[in-house]
Amino acid sequence: MMTDMAPPNLSQRAREIGEAVERFVRETVVPYESDPRRDHHGAPTDELMHEMRGKAREAGVLTPHILDDGSHLTQVETAHVLIRSGLSPLGPLALNTAAPDEGNMYLLGHVGSDHLKDKFLRRMVAGEARSAFFMTEPAEDGGAGSDPSMMQTTCRRDGNHWIVDGKKAFITGADGAGVGIVMAKSEEPDSAGGACMFLVDLPDPAIRIEHVPNTIDNSMPGGHATVSINGLRVPADQMLGEAGEGFKYAQVRLSPARLSHCMRWLGGCIRANEIASDYACRRQAFGKPLVDHEGVGFMLAENLIDIKQAELMIYWCASVLDTGDLGTAESSMTKVAVSEALMRIADRCVQVMGGTGVTDKTIVEQIFREVRAFRIYDGPTEVHKWSLAKKVKREWRAANEARD
Predict the structure, then answer these.
(1) According to the model, what pLDDT value does residue 1 have?
(2) Among 44, 198, 222, 383, which is least packed, fewest CB within 10 Å?
(3) Residue 160 resides in a domain
(4) What is the CATH number of the domain that holds 76?
(5) Taking Cα atoms as reference points, which of 245, 239, 209 lies closest to residue 227?
(6) Do 384 and 270 reside in the same domain of the chain?
(7) pLDDT tens digits for range 48-94
(8) Of 210, 244, 278, which residue is a domain's last?
(9) Model pLDDT for residues 177-206, shown as the tens digit of each residue
(10) What Å distances lie between residue 61 and 35, 177, 281, 336, CA to CA?
């Protein structure tokens, strides 16, 4: 079993859940990595997902971060569990801790009305329905990406309904999802041009998938679709929260969601490093095991350092979020530090394994591809650095104004 830098006062319940999750992933999920039930792009099919989730349900580890009474583990406890769920690229999918579902459940649990929780959240927590978060828009149309204020999808009132029109891009899991959270900019004067979020049942004839591009990653069913929304009618009671507050709710979701990405892919890189280390200790070259060559041994040593630093960053950011702070700056710092460290780890694992590392003989090459995509998703490194630089300037200005 793996070890990590979890705080010494980590709850016993988190330790027990983490052990059960790790055992399930290593013993039950890992064998599915060679299962041929994949789509044209290599992503696992919904049939494969539901089979694994059935076994997770039987083992009592389905949606392990949400307790039977509907409450969530703390972020620190969640880190301990989600790192272990990521030991296989299929782990988060099997356990129902994957993106975007995990982030969507978090948002709905914190902002949703009892009506929305009963209608939508219950199915998601039970692992019966995948979900999609419709925010990003096509760059070629000048739509919202890292800058959500550029949002062009609109919504307007029509009696007891809202009408949504627009186009979305890179919508993870849209193809085959049963629940959607759609974000649109309000045209109503009392919303001051703010954004709104709506819960919708999928599929819906007003939401049409135009294209699902082939991407470097393929761990998520449904891919990353481009979607057109034409005359989508949503009952007013399916608005998430208040009109015009959508950008604020997006931050409620994004800070913990980008941290959850760090947790899951750290688990993946820990597994990749285990495989690379085993290879280096077994493979002989020039009269001795690869690990005894400094060029190889030092790469594995650097991996251990990066893994531990990533763990520390994750638990530090989780502890900040547990204080009730949105932790926007902390999650940005963690996203940058961890995603870049994981890229180094995955790259070294491929390098240590040479030709074998670039084949599908192990999951190392997939981890490399997935982590490369992670450096972009939920905000690329450069956007987070830019945001942190603005924070430096604001704090400098505030300090100088205070002195004056």
Answers:
(1) 74
(2) 383
(3) yes
(4) 1.10.540.10
(5) 209
(6) yes
(7) 999 999 999 999 999 999 998 889 999 999 999 999 999 999 999 99
(8) 244
(9) 999 999 999 998 876 679 999 999 999 999
(10) 21, 22, 33, 30
Domain assignment of residue 147, given as a range = 131-244
User: 334 and 263 in one domain?
Assistant: yes
Both 254 and 175 in one domain: the answer is: no
| The residue type at 119 | K
329 is written with which tokens? Answer: 């700056």
- Cα dihedral 279→284→289→293 (10° resolution): -100
Report the predicted TM-score, pTM, of the whole model to 2 decimal places.
0.95
Asked if 106 and 169 sit in the same domain, the reply is: no
Residue 283 in tokens: 């493979």
* Domains in the chain, number: 3
**pLDDT (tens digit per residue) in 101-133:** 999 999 999 999 999 999 999 999 999 999 999
pLDDT in tens, 297-345: 999 999 999 999 999 999 999 999 999 887 889 999 999 999 999 999 9
Indicate if 189 and 106 belong to the same structural domain. Answer: no
Predicted pLDDT of residue 175: 96
Residues 287 and 377 in one domain: yes
Answer whether residue 36 is part of any domain. Answer: yes
* 62 and 162 both lie in a single domain: no
